[in-house]
Write a structure and sequence with these properties.
Helix content is about 45%, strand content about 15%. With about 290 residues, it is an alpha/beta fold. It is globular, with a radius of gyration of 19 Å. It binds NADPH dihydro-nicotinamide-adenine-dinucleotide phosphate. NADPH dihydro-nicotinamide-adenine-dinucleotide phosphate binds near residues 168, 193, 194, 235 and 266.
C-alpha cells in the first residue's frame, strides 16, 4: 500500500472531543445543556441501530438526548404536529428526523424536513441552511460533507488552490461538498451520471470525492497518482460485505491518501451531528 490511510476513528475522536468541550463551555457559561431530539417513525432495524448509536454518543458528550418513537401508522398531520411541538420546546436545540420514513409518509419527506425550524435543523437540509451555505455562511451544514471537509483539514491536506473533483451531485453530499471546498478556495468540478469522459475529469483531481452509491465504481485508472481519495459510498455486496464507491485495493496503490469503507468518513457523521446540536444550542441561547 502506498497511500496514507485516513482512518475515520482518529478524526471522529478529535471532533467529538471538540463538541464535548464546546458543550461543557456552554453549560458553564449559560447553564444550558444542548438538547437533541431524534424522531423515529416505524421499526426499520437499521434506523433503530443508528438512533441507539446517536443516543449513546450524546450521553458520552454531555448532550441531552430524547428519542421519540412513533408508530409506523403515524399520519402526516401527527408527524407534523410532533415536529412543531419540538420546534417550540426550549430544552431541545436540535431535531433530527430519522430516514427512511415508512412508505405511506415517504412522498411527503421534504415537507417534514422543511417543517423543522431552520434554527434546529441539525441535518442542515432546510432551504434556509442550504442558502446560508451557498452564500458562505457555514452554520448548520449537512453532516457527511462537513465530516469530509473537517477530516481533510485535520489531516493537514492543503485545499486552497487545489483541483477538487466531486462525483455525485446529491443535495445531501455532492452539492454541499462543492460549497465547502469552494469556500476553502479549491477549484471545484462536480460530475454526475451524464458527465462525459468521466475518467478524464477525475484524473485531474488533487482531491477526489466519490459519492454515487455504486460499489467499487472508481478504479485506479481514474485516479491521478498522489491524489487524495475520499470515499463516501456505502454499498452492501450480495455476500453482506460493506464496500465503498472506490475500488480500495487498486486505488490505494495509486492515491496519496485514501479513506477506507467501512471505517472512513461514515464515522465522522455522528460527531458532526453532535457538533451541530451544540452550535444550534449556542445560537438559540443568544436570542
Ligand atoms: P444519491 O443517489 O442521492 O446521488 C447519487 C449521485 O451519483 C447522483 O448525483 C448521480 O447522478 C451520481 N451518479 C450515479 N451514477 C453515476 C455514474 N455512473 N457516474 C457518475 N455519477 C453517477 O446518493 P447520495 O449522495 O445520497 O449517496 C451517495 C453514496 O454515499 C451512497 O452510497 C450512500 O449510501 C452514501 N452516503 C454515506 C453517508 C455516510 O457516510 N454517513 C451519508 C450519505 C450518503 P445524477 O444526479 O445524474 O443521477
Amino acid at each position: 500500500m502506498t497511500a496514507r490511510l485516513l482512518e475515520g476513528k482518529v478524526f471522529a475522536a478529535q471532533l467529538k472531543e471538540q463538541a464535548k468541550a464546546d458543550a461543557l463551555q456552554l453549560k458553564a457559561k449559560t447553564g444550558v445543556t444542548p438538547g437533541l431530539a431524534v424522531i423515529i417513525v416505524g421499526d426499520n432495524p437499521a434506523s433503530q441501530v443508528y438512533v441507539a448509536n446517536k443516543h449513546k454518543a450524546c450521553e458520552e458528550l454531555g448532550i441531552y438526548s430524547e428519542v421519540i418513537r412513533m408508530s409506523e401508522h403515524t399520519s402526516k398531520s401527527q408527524l407534523l404536529a410532533q415536529i412543531e411541538q419540538l420546534n417550540l420546546r426550549k430544552d431541545i436545540h436540535g431535531i433530527l428526523l430519522q430516514l427512511p420514513l415508512p412508505d405511506a409518509l415517504k412522498a411527503d419527506e421534504a415537507e417534514f424536513l422543511y417543517a423543522i425550524s431552520p434554527d434546529k435543523d441539525v441535518d442542515g437540509f432546510h432551504p434556509v441552511n442550504v442558502g446560508r451555505l451557498s452564500i458562505g455562511q457555514e452554520y448548520l451544514v449537512p453532516c457527511t460533507p462537513y465530516g469530509c471537509i473537517r477530516m481533510l483539514e485535520l489531516a493537514g491536506i492543503p485545499l486552497e488552490g487545489s483541483r477538487a473533483v466531486i462525483v455525485g451531485r446529491s443535495n445531501i453530499v455532492g452539492k454541499p461538498m462543492a460549497q465547502l471546498l469552494l469556500a476553502r478556495n479549491a477549484t471545484v468540478t462536480i460530475c454526475h451520471s451524464r458527465t462525459k469522459n468521466l475518467s478524464e475529469v477525475t484524473k485531474e483531481a488533487d482531491i477526489l470525492i466519490v459519492a454515487i452509491g455504486k460499489a467499487k465504481f472508481l478504479t485506479a485508472d481514474m485516479v491521478k497518482p498522489g491524489a487524495v481519495v475520499i470515499d463516501v459510498g456505502i454499498n452492501r455486496l450480495p455476500d453482506r460485505k460493506l464496500v465503498g464507491d472506490v475500488d480500495f485495493e487498486t486505488v490505494k496503490e495509486v492515491a496519496g491518501a485514501i479513506t477506507p469503507v467501512p471505517g472512513g468518513v461514515g464515522l465522522l457523521t455522528i460527531a458532526v451531528l453532535l457538533q451541530n446540536a451544540v452550535t444550534a444550542a449556542r445560537a438559540l441561547q443568544k436570542r
